[in-house]
Specification:
This protein has about 140 residues and is of the alpha/beta class. The chain has helices at about 20, 25-35, 50-65, 80-90, 130-140; strands spanning about 1-5, 40-45, 65-75, 95-100, 120-125. It binds 1,3,4-trihydroxy-5-OXO-cyclohexanecarboxylic acid. InterPro entries: DHquinase_II, DHquinase_II_CS, DHquinase_II_sf. GO terms for molecular function: 3-dehydroquinate dehydratase activity.
Length: about 140
Amino acid sequence: HSILVLNGPNLSRLGKREPEIYGKITLDDINRGLVESFSEVAFEFYQSEGEGALIEKLFQAEDNGSCSGVVLNAGALTHYSIALRDAISAIELPVVEVHLSNIYAREEFRRTSVISEVCKGVISGFGANSYHLGVRAILESRS
Ligand code: DQA
C-alpha cells in the first residue's frame, strides 16, 4: 500500500522560510525521515504552490486504487480553500490534515480550517513529527 504526502503553497521553502516558526528542516528532510521511519510504506511525495494541482493529485490518488490515505499540509489554503475542501469531500480516501505549527496558537485567521470537517483528523504543532503522526494515523486506522 502507498501513502500520498501532499504539501501545498510555500512548503517548498521550508528551511529558509520563517525558521523561528517552522524550524530549519527542509521538505526533503521531512520526506526522507518518513521513508526511513516507515520502510514498509511506498510513499508518494508531491508539493505544489497551486490549488488546482493539489486537487488533481488528490483525484489521481483516489483513482489509482493502491493508495491507502493522504497526509496533507495544505499551507494557507487550509484557511480558505473551499475548492480543496470540496475535493477532499469528493473522494473516499482518508485525508489527515497536518501542520508543523500549532495553528490554534498563532494569528486569529489561522484558527479557522475549512478542511478539518472533511478530514479524518487533524495533527498540528509537532513540527516534522506531525507528518509521522499523520502516517501512523492512516496505518493504524486501515480496516
Ligand atoms: C502551516 C500553517 C499555515 O497557517 C501556514 O499558512 C503554512 C504552514 C503549518 O504547517 O504550520 O503555510 O500549514
